[in-house]
Amino acid sequence: MTLGLCLILSAALFCIGLYGLLTHRNAIGLLLSLELMANATNINLIAFSRFRGDHIGQVFALFSIALTVAEVVVGLAIVILLHRAYRDARVGRASEFKN
Amino acid sequence: MPSSSFSLALLALLGPGAVALLLAIVTPLRNRISAIVLSLAAALSALGAAIVLVKGQLQPVPPQLVTIPWLLQDGIPFAEIGLRIDGISTSMLLVVTFVASCVQIFSVGYMHDESKPAQGRYFTYHSLFLTAMNILVLAPNLLQLFLGWELVGVTSYLLIGYYFKKPSAAKAAVKAFWVTKFADMGLLIGLLVLRSKVGSFDWDAAITPAAANVVTLLLFIAVMGKSAQFPLHIWLPDAMEGPTPVSALLHAATMVAAGVFLIVRGWPLFAVAESTRAFMLGLGSVTALIAATMALFQTDIKKVLAYSTCSQLGYMIAALGAGSLLGGFFHLTTHAFFKALLFLGAGSVIHAVHSNDIRDMGGLARKTPLTTLTFVIGALSLAGLPGLAGFFSKDLILEAVGEHGVSLPLLLLLFSAFLTALYMGRLLLRVFFGESSDKASHAHESGGFLILPLVMLAVPALATGYFGGMFGQLYGTAYHFHLGTTGVIAAGLGLLGLGLAFVLYRKSAEHPALLQPIARLIEFGPMDRLYEGGFHRIALPFAALIGWMDRYLVDGVMNLTGLAFVVSGQKIRRLQTGVATDYVLATVCGVLALVLYGVLR
After folding, report:
1. Cβ contact, residue pair A91, B578, below 8 Å
2. Which of B578, B581, B588 sits opposite A98 (nearest CB)?
């Protein structure tokens, strides 16, 4: 296992997340994609930490995981509200500010 | 006693000024009889001050000047403001305050039927006018004279438009204002040229003849406007829309004479300006003739007198053009008296008959004897009957113009003298003698307020001629009356004119067949049409062109700039779709672009 392989894995995950973000219309799908992208960065942090031989990156990864959880909580709350308002979780529906 | 005469002059200036200000601000005072009382008190006290001042000038005394610096810039005064007391200013002050007092007394009776607030407004304007005129008359330099000049122009506008609900009066006021303001540009430019050449606004500074010619010609343009000289005379007949006492004071005796006064005041400049004076002589005599001809063909009593005023002002201008300072000013004085008398007499007649048209009058001599008597005195004085005031002053002018032998201006002026007698004879015959029309048959003599000023003015209209020596003294020039050839010819022509009037107009105001073409030409109104044509053909298209440039070039650039931003904003707005995915895509593209930039650099 080399750093290069880890970075390729992380980049692949990131791109899959990005692709999901751009193609999904459903809010839950978007949240899942964001989660993939966040974990891709976490893999980056841990990989660098592992191959540099210190632990700062791992600390950051923990931080990042905690923050992502908070983000998902807020995101899911919004999804629930959205679903209550429109009986639908597709973000395209919530476009009332657009005239 | 310089300080006492100074305070007297200040009284003449500030008395009416204070009254005008008070009446303008305090409405309750203006809306009652107090307006009349205050205004009259100020005018009469100014008259008293003027009498004492003139008495002080009868001994040879140097001119007294009291000035304060005005318009300081960097501590150096740009000009001075103050009072100048000498023979010229005090005698003019006397004429102005005397006629103003008479006219105000007359107005008490004449404006009696107006509502109290309207009367208050009228007398406020009168006080303002007297202030403005005194500022002009007592000016120590041309800048203050200009100040008074513009102020009397404003009061003239206000008083012509006194019956502002009448469209013709409002129009006449605007016309008078425009024409005189147009001419006043000459005065303003002349002042600036004078300042740049001499470094002050004083009329007695040393100046080269060439510069004097330029300055005086510019000043004379303003004189042409104010003193209604051809071709800028067109506003004066229309100004008769104002109340008759106003016509007497402003548009016959004093304000229109301000132009002549300007020349008298600026005489040191005009004396060296040979070309300007030659022009003045020519234009004055032409105006005298044209206006006298116009006067003959009017049927409105006030318009006859208005054109007569133009004509007599032409005499004054011609006299000054011929170099006779005394002739111009002496005629100004006598004319102020008899023309104010004639206008007030006309006012009394109009008051009795309720019409301006001389065809509605006739046979008034039996019904209004005092008005008739005083009017006849004024008319004969104007016609130059030997022994009356107008004869002496007109004779002085004709002597001065004819000094160097027979010339065209002299002939024009002599013929005008004949016409003057003719139109005044026609007026007298049609108004006071012959058979009375329906309207005139119910006429009766006016009340005391109307008659008293007529009598007051009839005295100087009779007798001023015998005080030529006094006027000479005030002017520092000798005056001896001697009857020359021109005087005899003028008197003869005057009598001939009166006689011919009796022959032609004894029965009716209609003109004989020989004169009909001229009557038709005057009815056609060539000058007014010329101005109107010029206005429509030149001024309006020019204004339209400027308007087009403003609207489409200047505004166009502005509007185009605004429009560009509006349109581009509307286009760019489309980028904000409100769809989160699009923003993500934009962000990704941006990041990719940055990465590409980083790699390729």
Report:
1. no
2. B578
Dihedral sign from CA coordinates of B237, B238, B244, B250: negative
Task: Describe the crossing of helices B301-321 and B325-353 by its angle, rounded to 10 degrees.
Answer: 180
User: What pLDDT shows up at residue B3?
Assistant: 65
Q: For chain A, list the domains and their CATH numbers.
A: 3-96 (1.10.287.3510)
Nearest to B579 among A18, A21, A95 (CB): A95
Dist CA B208 CA B191 (whole Å): 15
Instruction: Return the SS3 of B443.
Output: coil
Residue A98 above 60 pLDDT?
Answer: no
The count of other CB atoms within 10 Å of the CB of residue B400 is 23
Virtual CA dihedral for B15, B16, B18, B20, nearest 10 degrees? 170
User: For chain B, which ranges sit under pLDDT 70?
Assistant: 1-3, 436, 438-441, 509
Q: Tokens for B51?
A: 């009498």
Contact of A95 with chain B, judged by CB distance below 8 Å, is answered with: yes
Q: Does the beta-carbon distance from A22 to B577 stay under 8 Å?
A: no
pLDDT score recorded for residue B456 = 85
User: Is-contact B143 B190, C-beta < 8 A?
Assistant: no
Distance, in Å, from the CA atom of B29 to the CA atom of B22, rounded to the nearest integer, reads 8
